[in-house]
Amino acid sequence: MRATLMYGPGDVRVIDVPDPVLQQPTDAVVRVVRSCVCGSDLHPYHSMTPEGTGAPMGHEFLGVVEEIGADVTTVTRGDLVVASFAWQDNTCDLCREGVQTSCRHGGFFAMNGIGGGQAEAVRVPQADGTLVRLPVAEDAALLPSLLTLADVLATGHHAAVRGRVTARTTVTVIGDGAVGLLAVLAARRLGAERIILMGRHKARTDLGLEFGATDVVAARGEEGIARVRELTGGDGTHAVLECVGHRPAYEQALGVVRAGGVISRVGVPQYADGDVGWRLFGRNLTLTGGPAPVRNYIEELLPDVLDGTIDPGRVFDRTLGLEEIPDAYRAMDDRSALKVLIRVY
Amino acid sequence: MRATLMYGPGDVRVIDVPDPVLQQPTDAVVRVVRSCVCGSDLHPYHSMTPEGTGAPMGHEFLGVVEEIGADVTTVTRGDLVVASFAWQDNTCDLCREGVQTSCRHGGFFAMNGIGGGQAEAVRVPQADGTLVRLPVAEDAALLPSLLTLADVLATGHHAAVRGRVTARTTVTVIGDGAVGLLAVLAARRLGAERIILMGRHKARTDLGLEFGATDVVAARGEEGIARVRELTGGDGTHAVLECVGHRPAYEQALGVVRAGGVISRVGVPQYADGDVGWRLFGRNLTLTGGPAPVRNYIEELLPDVLDGTIDPGRVFDRTLGLEEIPDAYRAMDDRSALKVLIRVY
Lengths: 345, 345
Description:
alpha/beta, Quinone Oxidoreductase, Chain A, domain 1, Rossmann fold, seven-stranded mixed sheet, globular
């Protein structure tokens, strides 16, 4: 089959690799119908150590079950399914505690010998815990929105859930990438009536306004902080959903959060040390977040996608084929595309 | 009246100062009956910049109301009352959100022109929001336990509340000072059945065992982390209540917390930067805590103190008079006393 591998910074290739096969009785093999490129795929695109054998790419996909292992009971051949970006048994104590990304028998796609989703097919470990059947046809117009359940919508939702967002919560979202925009949508869906979106790209923040943002702040750093404080009577907001992952975004979050509030991070931090001293402690702030336990959320989000209450697939502003994946990376890297949908089949 | 002032490291004096008087209609003047020395008083005792005029000391006291301003309605002359270590109106939006230590019209005792509790009397701003009437006589044997409502018991409770402690929560408490021991008591009171106390002073950890700790780990650093992990099947505990405030304690907390768990800090951090990168994020950990909003908790804790369900006053292992306060600081500094009760009147 054809699959995407990354060999070094800027070096993405679609090549022939062996077809995936069942290895464990809990495995399934899924033929990929739609995949996409994630903002986090750009981190190795900038800085990976060149690797002669290439690294498989992609952790967001939906597709059709082609084969199932003997122990798989919840999906069967021919089912259209979406996978969470982490695979898990969804039954261990940590999964039951809602941290499926720390599953005792889990892992991540495109890592440690498990293939990536930017390919024609994927072996899915722990298929019962990882795949969710989608009650629509393979060519449905809903596919882009359904694909966001694999990561970006669920990740935005995780930010909002960990930010304890309710109708009484004022919210700042930092970052106008796909996750930031879907954090806006998720906060609105949970009832938030005041959502300030911090982002500089007008086409993106315009979509954020359609998703439910009430204010846009293009300024960053101290100026951006001052503007959010001005919009909130000097106080900042109860929740800050940090969807970037760089230290300046953390500093910005500290600056715009209200006393007693929550900084909820879903942007993978590209830094280690941050200020956790009196600035965080003195105002009883909470810092939370992490890789979204997507599998915890799919059942909750799916009905709203199916009935059109939300339309998260709007974050895809370009569609390319699998062979054009190098162009997809380039377009996202130079920000000419927000998020590229890959039509595999 | 007599009051305690600190002039520089190790230099604590009890001197004559003017009697406090009502300044605002919301003030009360309280004659102090019991006060005490806090672990946090030792920070300036080690490192304050020498100050010619002296800094008032003490933020924990109970006493008898001597005078009230015209607007005070909830306490009256002759009432025995306890004050929270921060004063607040307890009616503003931030107070109603449970962060009384960030009250819009509040502040802290022994700061910014407000006197300290290690004195014969204190002017209490926002008396209605700050003082709680105690339905016991002035000489009651309960006074030591009631005094802990001003800070240490409520602070230990805050650690447990922010740590989301319930009967299903495994808990590690870092620190065997008065706050750590009362965090053990508070976690037990909230139902925790497994409480690991990390501390090195046997007399103190023995009291921790009586307060409800199920295990004591004397080792620190990597060795201490390994021991807690060994006690918890390799996983660490759901909640870690960090009651020290130094960076090694934060590192220890990161090492012993279970995936998806909470690090709840009530030790005032004596550091700014800490690791908030993948170690915190990757396992969906939550970092929370801050100065305890004591006033939020007194009504909840008071009945259990009054009926003897809990006996937090046991953290006082020495009693001295007001004139002996310099000895109290020395005893706590050299760890010959856990916490010194000051019998003022």
